[in-house]
Design goal:
It is a single chain. This protein is an alpha/beta fold and 200 residues long. The chain is 40% helix and 10% strand. The chain contains five helices and five strands; from the N terminus they run αβββαβαααβ. The chain has helices spanning 14-28, 78-89, 127-153, 157-165, 171-187, and strands spanning 58-63, 69-71, 74-76, 116-121, 192-194. A five-stranded mixed beta sheet has the order 3-2-1-4-5, with helices on one face. The longest helix has 27 residues, at 127-153.
């Protein structure tokens, strides 16, 4: 009895199909990018004497090697840091801020434009604590921006910023949102200074 040969499958176009699928997935896949902490290094400039800053306009936050917070020379828990930063930024000590709702304490910051938050860590501070402190300080700015934005535009600043940063937002809408976002940022400018970590 004669042996039958199995019919062959024509695989000549398999490489073409695989190549087309590869191109399809490369074109249609979106790659998520990590956003990290939003910090800009200052540009290199000639050394000029920095403008004097009154001590009352500096909010000192220190984190020691045991991950304890020292805020304005007082021990503080992490959950109280945001409220203390909001109180400092919104103080309006000189009465020049029309949108501030603070206590107008003459011993605290004059206005949000002059207020600076200074953060210093120990070289042995844990990364988790460092990020948690950063989050609370940045959240204080966002809380104040949200309040003033709700009053002016009936939307939170986070909503405006999210729509402005969304790549799906049309260019015309982005151009409409840009001055609103910049206006709110100017009302509470984020001035967060990091001092050199302490070495043991």
């Amino acid at each position: 009895m004669a042996k039958r040969s199995a019919p062959e499958v024509n695989a000549g176009s398999m490489a073409d199909i695989a190549f087309l699928l590869l191109i399809f997935f490369l074109v249609t896949t979106t790659i998520e990018t990590d956003r990290g902490i939003n910090r800009k290094l200052p540009p290199i400039e000639e050394q000029n004497d920095p403008p004097p800053i009154k001590e009352k306009n500096i909010f000192m936050v220190m984190v020691n090697r045991n991950n304890q917070l020292l805020v304005e020379d007082q021990l503080m828990e992490l959950q109280d840091l945001r409220a203390a930063a909001v109180k400092f930024l919104d103080n309006n000590g000189d009465g020049s801020c029309a949108h501030c709702k603070g206590e107008k304490n003459p011993d605290s910051s004059d206005n949000p434009e002059k207020a600076v938050i200074s953060l210093q860590n120990d070289s042995e501070t844990s990364y988790k604590t460092y990020i948690a402190v950063q989050n609370e300080l940045v959240a204080a700015y966002y809380e104040l921006r949200d309040k003033v934005c709700l009053q002016k535009y009936n939307k939170t600043y986070r909503e405006l910023e999210a729509r402005y940063d969304d790549p799906k937002t049309k260019e015309a809408e982005r151009l409409r949102l840009e001055p609103l976002v910049k206006e709110i940022q100017a009302m509470y400018p984020q001035k967060l200074s990091e001092a050199e970590p302490k070495r043991n």
